[in-house]
Amino acid sequence: MAPMPEWLRVRRGKNATDAAQWSKCPKCGEMIYRRDLAANLYVCTRCGHHFRMGAYDRISTIVDGDFAEIGGDVAVGDPLRWADRKSYPAKLAGDREKSGLSEAVVCGFGQVGGFDVGLGVMDFHFRGGTMGTVVGERVTMLFEEARRRHVPCLIFTASGGARMEEGMYALMQLAKTTAAVTRFMDDGNFLVSILTDPTTGGVSASFAFQADVVVAEPGAMIGFAGRRVIEQTIRQKLPEGFQTAEFLLEKGHIDMVVHRRSLKDALVRLLDYASKGAERRALAGVDA
Amino acid sequence: MNPFLDRERFLLELEQRIADLREASADQRVDLSSEIATLESRYHEILREVYGAPTPWQKVHMARHPNRPTSLDYINALDRFDELHGDRHIRDDPAVVGGMALLRGRAIVVIGQQRGRDTKENLQRNFGMVAPEGYRKVRRLALLGSRLGLPIVTFVDTKGADPGIASEEHAQSEAIAQCLVAFTEAKVPIVASVVGEGGSGGALALAIADHVIMLEHSTYSVASPEGCAAILWADASKAEEAAAHLKLTAQDLLGFGIVDEIISEPLGGANRDPANVVARVIERIDASLDRLERISVQTLLAQRYDKYRRIGAWQQETAPVGVRT
To answer: Which of A52, A179, B24, B144 is the most buried (most CB within 10 A)?
Structure first.
């Protein structure tokens, strides 16, 4: 694995997932030395299970070199003054501490395979990757800026859906991001979503499934309603493998399932097609 | 099950007794006016007590009331309605109804989520929970309206999108995601009315609009109270607590700028005078369309973008800790 780039060293800070020396594979139970796991792109060295990846780790495996973050200073309020067992600001502070992240998505610009791209990466370790106003705002800023720059976007999803503690403000982020995605795509820009474990609810029902090409990681759980909600509603157990990436591929919902090892190459090939198409459109004068 | 129904039954009994006394008083020429007056004042007292200042959880029950006007009550009150069916792929979803219609002489596309009033109807309508096939019908109708230049009028009334196995197999997420796109892009005015319950992305799929109306006791939330309680505390029975947290009332949402207008209901809810409520909602939709139709398509789309772009209570911090930009 390449040495950690400077931007990553600065941004990552203390990451709780790095604190433990050993990680246990949730699928096969294998104990893996943390450094080996990182060197293997957080894929189990024994069974190939794809671990949930931190946003900055993910970015470091995708971009060629530097990464310029945007929207990092967009911070959340507490619009509903929510407090159940804990207040919402206390929950956020706890997750900031644990994850080393300021919110559940990191957005910015960099190069992938020599192509300039906008990159949005969600992180399940922060509030289950839920979308509230900050996630909605950062994603919207990403699409607006990518539209201005006329570059493609790659968006990695990992989300439990809309964030309950922000109520209707959270639901409205579906409308807001959809508006930004739509403008971005209507201008002829290319969007690829990469669905990672898990992608559900409001995020799967918006930009995840609005992309030109939808890629998923092996074994990722993807769906609208979560397993618990479905089982409670229909009062029966769901079949094994239901709502996995492979299941969705078979049903025709997604374009491809790609192993993390091959992911960057696959994305670069897609970017290459889109870039050739954009060149051709520019020559033919059909671009807006 | 529905705490309102019990109290309401008591009120209806009182109403009946007052009516009986009036009749007796007229027939037998016995003066019962003081008894009647006493009963009436008691009746109004209870009415205010039961319905005066409903809690969010009580509003959830009012929104789900079996006699509350449903989408079809509004649609059937239009001048004319020609229903269009199906998603062109798999089936026609009875949980959502739509087609072309005339509203006070104006040609529109109308779409509404349709729940049932009793168990039999609810089974047929799947409790107003729309499946992917239904959302594809919604999208198809929205595109039709946009293409033909017919304003889109929607009625929202759902606990949420259908969470069944078949719905997942038919890509519920994608169906909703593409509805959101269709409403975002529609080149015609859109007026959405939340007439009952508005639950989660399944409601928003019909509610990206230039003007959003809510009835006084309707609710609209990021998830149904039961869903929220299940998600946060793995316990759907804590729905009442969730309802208090969610800020799901029309009054909350008007304050947030998420809905644009509230239409009042009679004391006790729309179920106590459905015809009047239906007529007033249609009148307000008509007035909104009058206003929106004067705006150019380009401006309309720009305003729609700005409206949703602004929603969000985020703030810029001047010196974020540990994050460099």
So the answer is: A179
Position B94, amino acid: P
Instruction: Report the Cα–Cα distance between both ends of chain B, in Å, rounded.
Output: 54
Strand, coil or helix: what is B214?
Answer: strand
Comparing CB atoms, the residue among A175, A204, A208 nearest residue B308 is A175
If one looks up domain A52-284 in CATH, what number appears?
Answer: 3.90.226.10
Q: How far is B99 from chain A (nearest CA, A)?
A: 24
- What does DSSP assign to residue B194? E
**3-state class of B228 per DSSP?**
helix
Domain match, B16 and B133 both? no
Yes or no, beta carbons of A136 and B312 under 8 Å apart:
yes
Instruction: State the total domains in chain B.
Output: 2
Taking residues B69-94, report their average pLDDT: 97
Whether residue B232 sits in one domain with residue B166: yes
**3-class secondary-structure state, position B92:** coil
Return d(Cα B126, Cα B160) in angstroms, integer. 11
Quick check: is B258 in a domain? yes
Confidence of residue A156 (pLDDT cuts 50, 70, 90): very high
Q: pLDDT class for A39, splitting at 50, 70, 90?
A: very high
The residue with greater pLDDT, B2 or B236, is B236
A150 and chain B in contact, CB less than 8 A: no
Residue span of the structural domain in which B35 resides: 3-52
